[in-house]
Amino acid sequence: MKIKDANQVIDIVSKYIDLSVVPFGQDKRSVVRIDTRQPMYGGNGIVYLLQMFDADELINNRIGCFMVFLNKYDQAGFHNHGPRGEEEVYVVMHGEGEYSDKAGEDGKVRTHKITKGSITAVSNEGFHSVQNTTDEPLIIFVITTNKA
Q1: d(Cα 40, Cα 48) in Å, to the nearest integer?
Q2: What span, in angstroms and rounded, lies between the C-alpha atoms of 35 and 9?
Q3: pTM of the full predicted structure?
Q4: How confident is the model at residue 147 (pLDDT cuts 50, 70, 90)?
């Protein structure tokens, strides 16, 4: 699927999930920014990060975003968040894919099918990767935590 502008990504994702957020003390709103990663951590295709909060609203502005893989085989390649001390929880909102993880760069790769409702978690030292395996968009809500 070829994307012409950021609003097209919002239109597509809005067909599957509600993109509204109500930050504490503020009015209901939608996506504040879309980040495009091509490739993401050496993966395939394009991954869109729909940021739901501004940088100054939360301690970590990546704490709540939608990670969107619009096309089959779009992928976030293996990576970890050790240097930043982050840990992540993924909640699949729509679609199907594969989640892979491994302990360290040379660890044994474990791969799991993920579908709507699946939840995964990775420590800051674990490596992980996600890939869309169907023609439907794979939409994942990402919650990032810091040890600090």
Answers
A1: 9
A2: 11
A3: 0.93
A4: low
Q: How many other CB atoms are there within 10 angstroms of residue 102's CB atom?
A: 18
Query: Would you say residue 18 has pLDDT above 70?
Result: yes
Report d(CA 103, CA 109) in Å as an integer.
Answer: 8
Mean pLDDT for the chain? 91
**DSSP SS3 for 57:** coil
| Structure-token pair, residue 71 | 């096309």
Q: By the 8 A CB rule, do 126 and 92 touch? A: no
